[in-house]
Each structure stands twice: as C-alpha cells, then as structure tokens.
Fold this protein.
Amino acid sequence: MPQVRNVLAAAARALPTWRAVLDVALFAVPLGTALCVLGRWTTVDLPILVAATGFVPVAVVVAAITTVLAIVMRRRLAAVSGAVCLLATAAVVVPRFTVGQDGAPAGEPLTVVTANVHFRGDDVAGAVDAVTSTRAAIVALQEVTPDFAAALAPRAAAAGYRWTVVKAAWGSTGLAVLSRVPVVGHRDLAIAGQPLLQVDVAVAGVVLRLHDVHIEAPVSRSAVRRWRDQLEALRRLLDERGGGPVIAAGDFNATVDHLPFRRLLGGGRKDAVVERGRWLPTWPAGRRLVPSLLPLDHVVVSDGLAAAAARTALCPGSDHRMLIASLVVVAAPEGRRPARREGLSDQRPTPITIR
C-alpha cells in the first residue's frame, strides 16, 4: 500500500505539468494551423513551411479537435483563439467541397491514370499489373526504371496499349506513357532541368496534348527553388498551347494549397479532383497505420475537357497511390484535327523508346 500511495502522490505532482503542456497545445495547434494557411501566399524557400502548407486540410481537423477540447475544459482564451483560427482555415478549405455537384457535360469519355511507381519499389510485377489493369485510355507513369520498362512492355501490349512512349532512367526521373488511342506525336522535353514527356494523341476528332510530369520534391532550400522554377516552367509550357485540349498528369509534389501550383491553374486550367469537389490524398501509401495525407498527384485539364469522376487506388510497391480521373472531351477546337507526326502511324502498334 505505501508503494501505491507513493505512485499516486507522484502522479498528482506531475498533473499540473501535464495541464500546462495541454494549455500550451490548445493555443499552439490552432495558431500552427493558421500559419499553415498563411503559407499558401508566401514565397519563402523554407522546406518546413512548404511541407506544412500541404497539410492545411488535415490541420483544419486537428484545429477543430483542439478548439472543442478548449471549450470542454473551459479555457476561454484558447477556445476563442482556436475558433478564430478554425474559421479562417475552414474558409479556405470548405469551398473546395461545394463545387462539382452537377453532372459532367456530354462528350467523349476519356479515362486518364497517373502513377508514380517508385524507382525503389519492391513489387515491380504488382505495379505493372495494377497500372495496366485499370483499362484507362491513357496511363502516365513516373519513376520508370529500365527494369520496370522491361517488365511493362509485354504486359502493356497484352492489355491493349498499342502505343507506348518510354524514357526510362535509373533513379526518379524515368517516364512512360501508355495509350489505347493513337499517338500522333511526341517530344522529350525538360522543364528547368527536370525531364518531361509531351505526347499528342488523337481523341474524338481532335489532337489532345498530354504532359507526363514529375516535379522535384521540395526537401531542401535549393530543392524548393528548383521546385518553384519547374512549376513555373510547366505553367509557361502549358500557356504555349494555342488551341486544343491539354492534360498535365503526374507527380507534382505540390497540393492546391501551394501558390506555384495554384498559378499553374490559371488560363482556364482545372484540377480534375478539385473540379469534382473531392480531396484525394495520394501520399504516403503502403505504410501500416499511416494513412495517405497529401494529394501530390494531379490530373490538370484545360478548356475543352471536364472531369466526371476521380478516385485513387493502391499501386503495389509504391509510396504513392494511383490517381484515376474520368474525363470528358467536350469541345473540338477548330484546326486541331488529328494528324500523323514524326513518322508515327495511327494504324499499328507503336512502341517508342527514348534514350
């Protein structure tokens, strides 16, 4: 019994300390959420601020919990400050879920998949099966290694992908595009030093341009600067397309809360997930007890295209979930009729390997 009393006495002495910690947390969490929201408009090259900005939707939920705790515990000042921060952050996040309630317009359906297959992935066969079994019209892949490309080729052909454009590389810069619709042109480009595949396909009587994108992760000050430069270079590249629908699909390593990505959405371009009023985090994936928290993968569409639906799916061996966007080709701009380019035929399978 004396030992029990001693333990209880020690716990009683420690209680005020835990109360003090909780009081600090009740102030700090909502304020931290507000700082995350402020990061949406900053251009400071701080990796921690860039990372925190991506968590704004998650932070809103955490701020709501701490505000409720402050009310229950009768911490009036903490409750008031938490409520103010919560309202400010909710004003940014909630409107995203009020759009996309109407049905998609009529047009030619087109399903596009983007998947970062992870160059260190430990289940190449599973990832290949996952991306080819979606039955999507177009599949954009990132972090495609030569080994992955070798495993992909026969499986893609068997799955009906008659046109493939592959630029494999060791490391994280390899890219590939699989298509069931005719490929009529392609270019191997770079945006601020980062590889990009540009592929033109013939769909519904128009030439649609697809950009397979993988933006560098902003994990250091210098990487943040390159990240901004690459997103800006991509924006300029998309602006160069005078007419005809355009898609940019891939791993942008950015969310709609990041200012450089929101600038990318100018000129009538839309994020397919946001257009449907959804929040679909794609990273991290494949980790026990850790849910996906950040929507880093996107399908961005121009005028002439609309989003009908969007969902994610597991990609075995990858740290990203696949993003599957059901689109509709709603317009056929004048002068953008299908044409054969760069010697490619729309009548036969065309595997293309860029070295």
User: Anything to note?
Assistant: Confidence is low (pLDDT under 50) at residues 333-349.
